[in-house]
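PROTOCOL LOG
Step 1. Enter all chains and additional molecules of the complex.
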Amino acid sequence: MLYQRRLVIFGSAIVLSVLMTGAYIFFYQFSPLDDSQTNLILNALTVSSASLSFVAVMLLVLNYLPSDKPFGIWVDFASGLFMWMVAEIVWSYYAMSMDEVPSPGLADIFWVGGMLFFTLGMYRQYRLVAQASPKFWVIPLFWTIVMIVTYFVLLATGSEVSSENYIEYFYAVSDFGIGLIALRLLLYFNGGVFARPWIGMFVFGVSDALYAVANASGLYSFSITTGNWISLLVDTTYIIAYLFLALSFFAQYLLLRFGPEAFLPSHEF
Amino acid sequence: MVALLERVFPEYRQVSASQIQTELNMFRQDLLGGLCQVSYPSGETYYLFYIEGQLIDFYHDDLQQVVRLENVNPAPFFAGKGDAQLRVCTLSPRLFRHLKTLIYRPREIDHLSVQTNRLMAVLDNYRKNEQPAFVHVIWPSAEGFTFLPGKGLPAREFLFLSDSQSQGSGLGVTILSRWPEAECELFYYSCDLTQEVWKENFISLGFTIVFEKLLNRYDDLVGKTLVLRLENNLSSAARSQALNIAFADKSIDDTHTFFTLSDAAAAYRSLFKLASHQMGAVVGPRLVAQALSDALNEISPTIFDFLSEKRIFEITSQ
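Step 2. Run joint prediction.
Step 3. Record the structure below.
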């Protein structure tokens, strides 16, 4: 009975995610309303998807005891996703009220801050699963490497060395790096419900990698102008990444709430 | 062999063969539990262990060897054997394995007179030995028993008997050092896998030690909520199989008495299978396998080999 109940609840969450993604694609590609209204809806959907992932991870945090070792991991992720949610709100406000969003700007502070929290959470998680104690300096080392690689990627693409371009590639490189760490953690938890949040983080890495490739090749700006499928694919994977993350946190919340019996058919339990 | 429970149950009665039968029938009819000891002038002794009126174990010690008697109806068994000394010890089944270990006359490695306040230090020293062992501590009016699993692991299944606690109690081993009598005799016995009772000891000790380590590791990974769910599910499964095994606070209270070693192995195997399946659904089979491997590496190789032979902790793919 718990299994069926969990299926219904989680199924409803998947339906909501599919509807949000479908709405995003519809308004992005067909723009049935005027530009300002379309932008409002698209930005609202992006902010909503970011908010859902924050709400989902908070459900997780609230169902752990502070003395539990995983508690700190999800507090870090909640902090990170809160910052990303704020970043999306700030960016959307800029996008709808200004001709050009300042880059780097206030939103970037929150995005970068969020990433710092993610690496902290992943560091805690890695220590727990690997039963290893890497020194804390690996976190600043990781970010130092990301910043250096970003610079060289910028040079390699032949883009102008500006703060705006640097921050664009910084997100792609850092998300890719975080995605690789997430993949490593995913391998530890492979086969278990606890693997799902790491799949979500990995999907973010893929999403930003797609954006980086499209942006570097000029295809993204060309696609925006001509309205072809490339920018649609890139921007849609971004919202899908948020929703996927939300679903993965939600799945773990349902696990805490209903127990593993909700994830195993009764004949296996 | 050290006299068993002489401090706590010193009373013997001279009885005839028919009186022995009456006493044993009373045990059965009144659903009593404990140990009946029947000793003959020749020196041979019979030990009968009862739980709720049911005969669990029946041993014959003829001073040369100890033999477990099976499929024997005890009351008529004593019919033609003449007068004997009878002692009835009302005991918790928790004590049975400890007493059976002594009945089998384990090899005594060490015998010390120890100050009670130094007892924990002595046990800590013995604990570091690689091989599992059994320790029996005797005061003028109390006795204590505990197993040392070897390889530095803490003492397990500590039980204590005194005039006021004749049922035995599962208190922490540190109570030994707080007993008011200042001096005690300590007997340190080696394990012996040729004796059936040591196989029982190993399977029970090995299961609880490894499983508790698994639960602790699972708690590290998932937190108390999911550990509590797992423990509830395991306790429920044990109850459904009529096993006196309870899971709580990341520890196992195993007071079940199995009729055969195969029964024990099958029960433990099914509980582990349930746990590994549920843990695997949560954290993935790789982490479960790693946790199990780490736990098995921490136990004595002797117990490890025995558990492997009985295939208690086999992980099968789901």
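Step 4. Note key features.
The radius of gyration of chain B is 21 Å.
Chain B touches chain A through 24 residues (CB under 8 Å).
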